[in-house]
Amino acid sequence: MPIEYRRARADELQATQELIVRSINDLTERHGFGPMASVRSPDFQLFSWNDDPAGLWTAERGGEIVGSAFSWVCGDLWFLAELFIAPALQGQGIGNELLKRTFDHANEAGAVHKALITFTFNRVSQGLYIRHGLFPRLPIYMFGAAREAVEGRLGADRLRCERIEPTAAHFQSLARIDASTLGLSRAKHHKFLIGDPSMKGFLLYAGDDCVGYAYVNAGGHVGPLAVAHPQAAGSAFVTALHLAVESGAAQVSAFIPGASETPLKIAVDCGMRIAFPMVLMSSQAFGDWSRYLPRNPGFM
User: What global pTM score does this model have?
Assistant: First the structure.
């Protein structure tokens, strides 16, 4: 039965997430990590579909969704947030066909940089991305620990926090930090985070200077986090961990790039351990990843 490739529809994004969860858990179980994904509401995917539906694609066979690709664009960065194929149909070229269509999205948007984050142990996918000109740049580790373990070891070096509000002044501060850290504006993504009731965002201050921002969700996960200069990375991460602990969540977690030496040391000293390794792949180096902690592999 032939595969049909078409633009994704908003009403199928939830079913697509179910396929993605099956694919992730099949991969992680085969590599000894056990199931690690659970089905969630596709809020970010729907937000991105409304913003730019050209970035979402579906592979369908006989009325059944068997593959999905999702990419977004900010400024001159194109980011592949998701590319997943039904486990029984992997290795049959579906991923390559979907990737071609998402690259068309990048070209139409005039993207200069192309990037994604994938599991380090996903060797087949990395080979596919390398063939298309995206190369491994740096490791990113998912860290986690019980809230009580982190709380008992946290230092007191906290920055002053101010809740992020949808004001011109706050968006200006966020844009300045993102331009310094990533080289682009993510204004639309900040609007998404501010509107997410499960998220709390904070501007971080050293005295009167806004030196960074951090988001913490209701599940105790830190990210994204960005700072204006490397010296603020440690105190910003400690502050974010305090906020995660104060959320009351059972677990505290964060994605930390290998270039973020100070947050990595703080995480280990606080009893956090690596849950699984990932890798940033891109067409060329971009951003200062010693000053930026992603939210997750799809949001960046």
Answer: 0.95
